[in-house]
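Repro case for the chain-ordering regression, as requested:
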Amino acid sequence: MGELTELARALVELNEPELNDLVRRRLDAGGDPLAIVGECNAAMVEVGRLFEEKQYFLSELIMAGEIMKGVMALLEPRLGDAPSGASRGTVVIGTVKEDIHDIGKNIVAMLLSGTGFTVVDLGVDVPAEAFVAKVRETGARVLGLSALLNFTYPQMKKVVEELVSAGLRDRVKVVIGGAPVNEQVRQFVGADYYAVDAAAGVNICKEVYGA
Amino acid sequence: MTDEGVRVTFRPSGTEIAVPLGTSLLEAARRAGVQVEAVCGGQGICGKCAARLAGGRVTEATAAEEELLTPRQREAGYVLLCQRQALDDVELDTGPGETAGDRHAKDYCGETAFAVDPFVRKTFHRLDPPSLTDQRADLDRLGLAARVDVELAGRLPTLLRQAAFQVTSVVADDTLIAMEEGDTTGEAFGVAVDVGTTTVAAYLTDLARGRVLASGSAANGQAAYGADVITRITHTMETPDGLTQLQKLVRRTVDEIVVRLLAETGVPSDRVYMVTFVGNTVMTHLLLGITPRHIAATPFSPVFCRPMQGRCAELGLESVPGRAVWRTLPNVAGFVGADTVGVMLATGIHDRPGVWLAVDIGTNGEMVLNCHGRIYTCSTAAGPVFEGASVRQGMRAEPGAVYRVRLGEKADIGVIGDTAARGICGSGLIDAVAELVRLEAVNKNGRLKKTDLPPGCPAAVRERIVTDGTGTRFVLARDPEVALTQGDISQLQLAKAAIRAGIGILLAEAGVGASELDGILLAGAFGSNLDPVSLLGIGMLPPIDPARIRAVGNAAGVGAIMALLSREQFALAVDLARRVRHVELSADRRFNSEFAHWLVLEKQPGF
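-- result from build under test --
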């Protein structure tokens, strides 16, 4: 993590007090809030990498996400509608109907934003129609479906079927994620990819958008 | 009063006897055939023949009673049968008034005294045989208001005549379920069962004397279809006969334990008249063969919360007669079940003045908070880390498991069974991490420190932190090595944060601070074996004087016993299940950030 700034390193090291302190000082000195977001995003990418290398664990991903949320709350009033630079592409994401587990999905969303994607997070217990409508509206090329409970797989399958009936299936890659997904589940659902963890999910999005 | 003197009635059996005025109550009990312990033979020395005076006049209290009965017992109307004589028709309750469950339970069950008054009533009838001047029907002759099964009514004429019209009736749940020859009022038994996801525990209970005779447990036979409730539910949905299969497995487990308890005690199976069940909501559904599928997915609606009841034949139980009645305690919600209601009964948490928290630590952590009479409950998914799953060298608390860790100048590592360490169980994991936090050998994020250990850190700790290509770990034992990995610590952080977040939200819901807690009760076989200091050390419980944390054993099972022995306690359970406010954490916006907040491992002040 050689190129990381002091601020980004504080986030990677999950040092919340120091990070918040650095952010406040930068803002007080008239620093650019967007630059801070950029540094935090770089930090989240590094956290994702450490997780991928099994040096970091789920607890640390969650902590990093929570600390990042705190920073965003500090920055929000100053961010306004400033464009956050060029997006790598749009990803629609959500937890399928009948399931409301969202810790994993939130981490994926956080890492995707950090990596430069525009993330449209539909939340939890999302009906199939809502996914389809959002894909149509945004033209997203990746749709991420999350579920923790394995009997909600039929709900994932339903989303794919509705994409087919809406004539959108060819325009979007469907990625499924959540505790016990595997190749068998992917085939059952009719998805294009399955992601074993948050880092894998990000890599798939990069692949789809050719970035 | 009768011509012969006074009438003494003994509860709960209902046995009556007429004795001359001035007869000692102990003598009356003996003549009536009511079993009363009188170790000293009625000398007023042992204090064992205590019973509660439920009605009527008796002679004055004696000095022996002053000495042998507690002020509380005397206030509640307890007398020593050998010390008093009847001055009028008298009614006595010979149940001991208090009950005890398993080893752990005995310590605290005494706090929740209740009168033994089970749903099962046995009454001895000495009937006049019919004659031309008394042509009452056989059933009317018994003078019972209870419903009667046609099948039993059919056997009644033969039974009555064989028994020379001296019979004992058994009424349970307002139904005459059995008729026995002679006076069998002293032989009434029931079974209280706690159906856990992992372990089923049963308590064979003497309904006449209000005592637990024997207890036993076995692994829930459903375990073959998954360790947690979600996997079991999935099985019922994915396999055509899944539900029937799982019902059969748990029923077999219950039968297996009950058969063992009956053999151990010599209690004949046909003297068992009632079974009470507690368990989490999914377990009670599976026991009854009712689909739990809608509990698993949002919005988690169970089929029933109310107490259910019926006859054991419909559950397919074979260890007890099919005519015996069963009841489940009420559930509160999809993930707060009858077992939590049992914990409330056993701990009397609703009655405790001030602010009290009861936590049942397990794969699902359920908790109850009583804040000045307002009661809240929630459940939180802690995962299987406490059972040793998801820990690299995790194991159950069996021989070879590291169960206790104390770190100082020397490392004191306790292994179950005095053998070489093979792995680590939940209590060992919690102890080890608590010690590492106390010695500041891990940072806030749970990372084992490699270089920046505090200067005072003992060498015994320093040299156990090992880093190599596989990462950093803390070595508990060598040859073979048993170590705690960074990943294990992370797993524990997730589990403790889930429980602590649940506690935090209950406290917030009640509008009290953790500092206002008067005490914390640790329920469940697992929770009872944890060191309160370690639980505080890892921050799983809010900071409180460790002396105010108490283990209460299998409180859920004790609750089932109480509901078996006392109609009043059963009614209380129903009332509590209605009164308690259920906080659904999965829909709670506070949960995710509370959870993330409590992931940290911070040295607690005073540790």
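Ordering looks correct now. Strands of chain A lie at 90-95, 118-121, 142-146, 173-177, 193-195.
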